[in-house]
Specification:
alpha+beta; 2 domains; six-stranded antiparallel beta sheet; four-stranded antiparallel beta sheet; 11 helices
C-alpha cells in the first residue's frame, strides 16, 4: 500500500473574545488598559492613534495593529470620526503565539495583494462584508430553534474565517519581519520555552514554582526564565497569570460555578484572594464580569447620536 500522507490527530483551539465594530466621533478616546489576550484592531475609516507601552502607532483607513498581551495601551483623542473593528484572541499553538509576541513591528499597513497573497486589509473587508449583518443581528435570531441551528453553522463559518485571518497575519509577520531569522535564539532554546509553556498550560491549577520547571527541563532557573522571556515577551510567572485569567474568564462565562468554587479550582487560598487577583488583571470583580457578559448576550448595546457600537460576540 502506498500512502500519500497520514495524519493521526489534528487539534487546535483558538479563543476569541470581545469582537465588536464601532463608530466613534471626533474627540473620543479610551484610557489605559491591558489584556491577557492578543488584540487585533482594524481601522475601517478615519484615523486613530494607539499608544502601546509608550510607543505611538498611527492607523489610517485599512491599517491594522496587533497588541501583544500584557501591553498597556490606550486610544488617543480622535481628530476625526472613525470606524474600527476589534477582537481579542489566543491560541494553543505555541509557535504561532511566539510569532505574535516577538514580532518587532506589529503594525500592518493597508496594501494591495503582494505576490498573489491577499492583503490583511482586503481579507478584513471581505470578512465584514460577509458577516457584519449576521453578527449585528445574531442575538435577535437566537429565540427560534431553527434560527439558532442555522445561525450556529454560520457562526462556525465565521470562526473559520477569523482563524484564516489570524493565519494570514502570522504569515505577514514571518514574511515581512523574518521573526525567526532575526532571532539570536537557537531552535533548542525556542523548544525549551515552548516546553515550559506546555508545562504551565498543563498544570495551571497547581502552584508551580520556576525551580520545579527548571528541574523538569534540566536547566538553571535563570536560563529557563531568560529563554522563555525571549520567546514569549513575558516571564513564566506572568504567563501563568495569563493562563489563570483566561481559565477564570472561561469558567465565569461557560459554567455556573460560584466564585468560591472557581477559586478552589484554580488553587487560590481564598475567594477574596481570587477576586482581588481577577480585579487587578481584568479591571472588574468576577461577578460583575459575569453579569456584564450576561447583559451583552441578552441586551445588545443601543445606538445614539454620539457613538454606535454593536457587540458581536
Amino acid at each position: 500500500m502506498e500512502q500519500l500522507f497520514s495524519i493521526q490527530k489534528l487539534y487546535t483551539s483558538i479563543l476569541m473574545e470581545w469582537m465588536h465594530y464601532a463608530k466613534v466621533p471626533k474627540g473620543w478616546s479610551f484610557p489605559n488598559h491591558k489584556h491577557s489576550l492578543f488584540e487585533f484592531i482594524y481601522c475601517a475609516s478615519g484615523r486613530m492613534e494607539q499608544w502601546v507601552n509608550g510607543q505611538s502607532f498611527i492607523l489610517q483607513e485599512g491599517d491594522s495593529l496587533i497588541i501583544k498581551y500584557g501591553h498597556v495601551h490606550h486610544t488617543a483623542e480622535l481628530t476625526e470620526d472613525t470606524e474600527f473593528f476589534v477582537f481579542h484572541f489566543d491560541m494553543d499553538m505555541k509557535e504561532v503565539q511566539t510569532i505574535f509576541q516577538v514580532v518587532p513591528n506589529p503594525h500592518i499597513p493597508s496594501g494591495q495583494e503582494d505576490n498573489g497573497i491577499c492583503s490583511v486589509s482586503r481579507r478584513v473587508r471581505d470578512f465584514l462584508d460577509e458577516f457584519k449583518e449576521l453578527l449585528i443581528h445574531h442575538n435577535d435570531l437566537a429565540e427560534y430553534v431553527d434560527n439558532r441551528m442555522e445561525q450556529s453553522v454560520k457562526l462556525l463559518r465565521m470562526q473559520m474565517r477569523v482563524i484564516d485571518l489570524i493565519c494570514l497575519i502570522a504569515e505577514h509577520f514571518t514574511r515581512e519581519s523574518s521573526v525567526y531569522l532575526n532571532s539570536s535564539m537557537s531552535p533548542a532554546q525556542i523548544n525549551l520555552a515552548h516546553e515550559v509553556a506546555f508545562q504551565l498550560e498543563s498544570h495551571s491549577g497547581e502552584r508551580l514554582q520556576i525551580n520545579e520547571l527548571a528541574e523538569k527541563t534540566g536547566f538553571h532557573r535563570s536560563y529557563v526564565s531568560s529563554c522563555f522571556k525571549e520567546v514569549y515577551g513575558i516571564s513564566p510567572r506572568k504567563y501563568l497569570t495569563k493562563i489563570k485569567v483566561r481559565t477564570a474568564k472561561q469558567l465565569l462565562q461557560n459554567t455556573e460555578l460560584t466564585v468560591t468554587e472557581i477559586a478552589e479550582k484554580l488553587e487560590f487560598s481564598s475567594p477574596a484572594h481570587f477576586s482581588k487577583f481577577f480585579l487587578n488583571n481584568v479591571g472588574l470583580p468576577p461577578l460583575k464580569y459575569r453579569n456584564q457578559l450576561y447583559q451583552y448576550s441578552n441586551h445588545p448595546i443601543k445606538s445614539n447620536d454620539d457613538i454606535t457600537e454593536k457587540e458581536l460576540l
